[in-house]
Specification:
Cytochrome Bc1 Complex, Chain D, domain 2, binds heme C, single chain, disordered N terminus, 352 residues, mainly alpha, two-stranded parallel ribbon, two-stranded antiparallel ribbon
């Protein structure tokens, strides 16, 4: 209990100190006080680990299966696979539809270092979360499906592949290239007409006029997509990280159109923001029980566009902005929370 409180306090303090009010909470990195200086690793120049080099032992087999599940998710655990018991994902995306380049591309939410960053506090659960729980977070939201059983070969394969990618990254290291790269969000609501124009000019050629992408084969063959759909029944659901406009803006700016990197972005921040708004204004699967997410309401991300909203701002603003005023409110709530926890701690010391 005490530990959990401390981590919550650390997060509250980080937010209150003007930290990243947009983002998820930080890892419980080893502190200087513990005598362990957290390392720093950059993924920008680092060689990508190659699965080819692994021997054919049990670790190698599982890592290879994990790689296969990551790149061809639809063919093994998608909604169209032959064995109904294996239909865990609810759409025909691959993990690599978002976690690009075998989940190793910098600023495309790479898994390199994830084994060294978890267990980690996550606001969505207001608790420490394990790598397995994080995988299932994407299974239930990005993949609009069901959680994988912890003892399944598939879960072991995912965690082994993530472990393989993370080899050589020290626990608690600060990783340059992790998650997504920040953008300067305009202080206005996303402009749907401008977003549609960006979509037509830069996205439609692959993702299609109707946003439904292009399949490899035909519906029902479990072969997934050449270009994945951006909305509709076979897309991520409204509880997914990609359904948050600030997250989608950062992902799109530095990864789309396909081929772009953090060094070669072609969209401006405004264009990325507007096209993200346009995509997220379209229909997609709805996740049940989203109100259970972020039980500690004060640290719910400001762009999580589902109720309840505790800051008094309208739902539309949480979905489309303007965000800077919401970020200010979030910092204020975090500051109050940090104060409360400090008082509680002082009171419990007095009581002892
Ligand atoms: C529609 C896009 C999308 C797809 C498909 C997707 N994810 Fe994710 N994933 C995200 C986003 C966005 C984040 C970071 C968001 C957040 O922190 O909530 C993320 C984060 C993660 C993380 C944590 C990364 C970190 O740095 O902490 C893991 C592990 C993960 N996903 C696993 C998976 C697995 C396994 C699959 C396939 C079964 C998958 N994801 C499919 C979008 C996606
Ligand atoms: C040249 C083809 C191409 C263009 C142009 C393109 N994309 Fe993509 N997009 C892809 C591919 C392929 C993927 C899957 C990622 C991978 O395999 O590396 C993808 C994935 C995505 C995803 C995450 C997966 C999903 O299904 O939601 C989003 C969001 C996205 N693109 C948005 C855009 C936006 C917005 C634009 C225009 C600014 C755009 N894309 C332009 C090919 C393209």
């Amino acid at each position: 209990m005490n530990r959990f409180r401390t981590s919550t306090l650390a997060v509250a303090t980080m937010l209150a100190l003007g930290g990243n009010a947009y983002g998820q909470a930080a890892a419980a990195a080893p502190s200087a006080a513990e005598g362990i200086a957290p390392g720093k690793v950059s993924l920008l120049e680092r060689a990508r680990p190659s699965i080819e080099s692994l021997p054919d032992d049990e670790y190698g087999k599982l890592a290879r299966y994990g790689h296969e599940l990551t790149t061809r998710t639809f063919a093994h655990i998608g909604p169209e696979v032959k064995d109904p018991a294996m239909r865990f994902a609810g759409n025909n995306l691959a993990c690599t539809s978002c976690h690009q380049e075998n989940a190793a591309k910098p600023f495309a939410m790479p898994w390199v270092g994830v084994s060294a960053a978890f267990p980690r506090y996550r606001g969505r659960e207001d608790a420490l979360s394990t790598v397995e729980e994080r995988v299932n977070g994407c299974m239930e939201r990005s993949m609009n499906g069901k959680p994988l059983p912890l003892d399944s070969r598939e879960m072991k394969a995912f965690t082994t592949y993530i472990h393989f990618l993370s080899r050589g990254i020290p626990v608690g290291a600060k990783i340059e290239g992790a998650a997504t790269k920040p953008v300067e969000v305009p202080n206005r609501r996303a402009d749907m007409a401008a977003g549609e124009a960006v979509f037509k000019a830069n996205c439609e050629v692959c993702h299609g006029e109707d946003g439904q992408g292009r399949r490899m084969g035909v519906a029902g063959d479990a072969q997934g997509y050449l270009f994945p759909p951006l909305w509709g029944d076979d897309s991520f659901n409204n509880g997914a990280g990609m359904n948050r406009i600030l997250m989608a803006t950062r992902f799109i700016k530095y990864n789309m159109p396909q081929g772009v990197t953090h060094q070669t972005a072609v969209l401006s921040d405004d264009e990325a923001f507007d096209v993200a708004g346009y995509i997220l204004s379209k229909p997609r699967p709805v996740k049940a029980n989203l109100e259970k997410d972020f039980p500690a309401r004060w640290n719910k991300p400001i762009d999580a566009a589902f109720p309840p909203y505790v800051d008094g701002a309208p739902a539309d603003q949480h979905k489309y902005g303007p965000f800077p005023p919401l970020a200010e409110k979030a910092r204020e709530m975090a500051r109050k929370r940090a104060e409360e926890l400090k008082l509680q701690r002082a009171a419990s010391v007095v009581a002892q």
